């Protein structure tokens, strides 16, 4: 008999014995309605999640022990229960005692035979007896898929109500399916899987507080972040800032490897210099989110079209949504503009780059048709977590790269007026580098960076010429 068939039969049998009481929704959607921690079901699920996490922690320890100092290591990852990107739980790991081999565990309870009752005379107990039934449910939990860890309910003489048992059973099956799907298609994350439990809790809290009405789904899963769409709720601050009707939630991924190659942006950014060396990786990721918030605020103050910051919580940044009715505005690379609009977009970007440099003292550092949205007949800049000040040791190189992307995009797009990359660089920075070929031009850029760096060495920390951002508060539990 195939495993699949066996499972179906088991499910059928259980359904017959325990008519469905609750169906556990699997959807990725977080709404105000489905957050009810008062229900046994929710608590049971939370406990199960906690258990899965502990199981994974134990697995990681076993993996470590197994591999030892060996150069070749074997990963137990596919056996894990919790599959989000979360991998930096060391900070929150609690000591966990392995109780699976408890020598004092109670004997397994006797199960009721087919006839439906045991005992004689007045000592008869039927299968409907609450205690017996509860014990039986606990025992049956062991029949969930072998890889579904349920803990030592029998040892604790745990009595589960039918309702909770059914919910847990359903949860076990959906977890199993989820796990299978995930192993198949690790890349295709949906909203539910895209964030780790801690992030999900953060998002829950925002909805719970009424700040967000509903989180509808995922807009984008990138290497370093996941972006969700949400409908805004009401303000929870005293300053009564209005929350936009539609929001984008950028969740910076808490896996670290993706961020390693970004070190060069933040490490040399004097605004973060003092803090960088002392921080653990998790805090560094929060710093990316913080950086994006500060940069967006500067841009907002200079009147550059960009998302407006709503709130920052740890590595989660909520901002206004560029787009409408859950549909994000298209990236410049995806939208087909008329030649007139193309020209308009070009001049707008030239102007934005100048203002970004002069008024915000920022270089975007990842500017291209991928990070510009076309909305309301104009270009909006997004994705500024990596943006740096022009005095950053590599700031001018980043600017030159931005100029090359912009210049190439519009020249290819048929805008004959578009400056070439060197002209654009000079137009944005006013540095008037005279070199007429790329190699010399870049050499001069690097020389300028060097001069600037030497100046910093001699005169100490740079002082920002810009007034404080007037940033919204950063909330942290
Ligand atoms: P990354 O490229 O680092 O993954 P981005 O900030 O560029 O992160 O966001 C990824 C995608 O999410 C964008 O290309 C855009 O489609 C969408 N997006 C991000 N922020 C917003 C926003 N405020 N409004 C609408 N869509 C957004
Ligand atoms: Mn991007």
TrEMBL record:
* Stretches the record annotates as Disordered: 85-121, 457-477
The Gene Ontology terms for molecular function here are: kinase activity
What's the cofactor?
Answer: Mg(2+)
Does the UniProt entry include the keyword Magnesium?
yes
Concerning InterPro entries, the annotation shows:
Kinase-like_dom_sf, RIO-type_Ser/Thr_kinase, RIO_dom, RIO_kinase, RIO_kinase_CS, Ser/Thr_kinase_Rio3
- Stretches of Basic and acidic residues bias are at 97-108
| Entry EC number(s) | 2.7.11.1
Q: At the top level of its lineage, which domain of life is listed?
A: Eukaryota
Q: Does the keyword Nucleotide-binding apply?
A: yes
Q: Which reaction does it catalyse?
A: L-threonyl-[protein] + ATP = O-phospho-L-threonyl-[protein] + ADP + H(+); L-seryl-[protein] + ATP = O-phospho-L-seryl-[protein] + ADP + H(+)
According to the entry, every stretch annotated as the RIO kinase domain falls at 184-430
Going by the UniProt record, its keywords in alphabetical order are: ATP-binding, Kinase, Magnesium, Metal-binding, Nucleotide-binding, Serine/threonine-protein kinase, Transferase
Q: Which family does it belong to?
A: Belongs to the protein kinase superfamily. RIO-type Ser/Thr kinase family.
User: What name goes with this protein?
Assistant: Serine/threonine-protein kinase RIO3
């Amino acid at each position: 008999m195939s495993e699949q068939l066996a499972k179906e039969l088991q499910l059928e049998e259980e359904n017959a014995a325990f008519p469905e009481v609750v169906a556990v929704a699997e959807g990725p959607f977080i709404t105000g309605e489905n957050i009810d921690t008062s229900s046994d079901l929710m608590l049971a699920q939370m406990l199960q999640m906690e258990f899965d996490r502990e199981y994974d922690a134990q697995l990681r320890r076993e993996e470590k022990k197994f591999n030892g100092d060996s150069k070749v290591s074997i990963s137990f990852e596919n056996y894990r229960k919790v599959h989000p990107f979360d991998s930096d739980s060391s900070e929150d790991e609690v000591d966990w005692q392995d109780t699976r081999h408890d020598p004092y565990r109670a004997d397994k309870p006797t199960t009721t035979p087919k006839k439906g009752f045991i005992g004689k005379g007045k000592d008869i107990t039927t299968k409907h007896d609450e205690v017996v039934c509860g014990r039986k449910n606990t025992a049956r939990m062991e029949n969930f898929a072998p890889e579904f860890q349920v803990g030592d309910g029998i040892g604790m003489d745990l009595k589960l109500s039918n309702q909770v048992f059914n919910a847990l059973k359903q949860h076990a099956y959906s977890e199993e399916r989820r796990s299978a799907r995930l192993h198949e298609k690790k890349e295709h994350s949906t909203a539910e899987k895209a964030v780790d439990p801690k992030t999900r809790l953060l998002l829950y809290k925002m909805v719970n507080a009424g700040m967000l009405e509903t989180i509808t789904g995922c807009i984008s899963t990138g290497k370093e972040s996941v972006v969700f769409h949400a409908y805004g709720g009401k303000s929870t601050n005293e300053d009564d800032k209005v929350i936009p009707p539609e929001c984008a939630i950028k969740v910076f991924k808490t896996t670290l490897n993706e961020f390693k190659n970004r070190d060069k942006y933040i490490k040399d950014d004097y605004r973060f210099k003092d803090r960088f060396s002392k921080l653990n990786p998790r805090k560094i990721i929060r710093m990316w989110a913080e950086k994006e918030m500060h940069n967006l605020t500067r841009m907002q103050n200079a009147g550059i079209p960009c998302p407006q910051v709503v709130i920052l919580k740890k590595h989660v940044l909520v901002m206004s949504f560029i787009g409408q009715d859950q549909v994000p505005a298209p990236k410049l690379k995806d939208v087909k503009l008329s030649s007139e609009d193309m020209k308009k977009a070009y001049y707008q970007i030239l102007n934005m780059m100048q203002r970004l440099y002069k008024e915000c003292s920022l270089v975007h550092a990842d500017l291209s048709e991928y990070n510009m949205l076309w909305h309301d007949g104009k270009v909006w800049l997004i994705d500024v977590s990596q943006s740096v000040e022009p005095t950053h040791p590599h700031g001018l190189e980043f600017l030159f790269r931005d100029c090359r992307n912009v210049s190439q995009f519009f020249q290819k797009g048929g805008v004959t007026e578009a400056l070439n990359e060197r002209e654009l660089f000079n137009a944005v920075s006013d540095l008037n580098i005279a070199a007429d070929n790329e190699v010399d031009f870049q050499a001069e850029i690097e020389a300028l960076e060097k001069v600037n760096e030497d100046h910093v060495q001699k005169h100490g920390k740079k002082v920002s010429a810009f007034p404080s951002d007037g940033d919204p508060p950063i909330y942290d539990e």
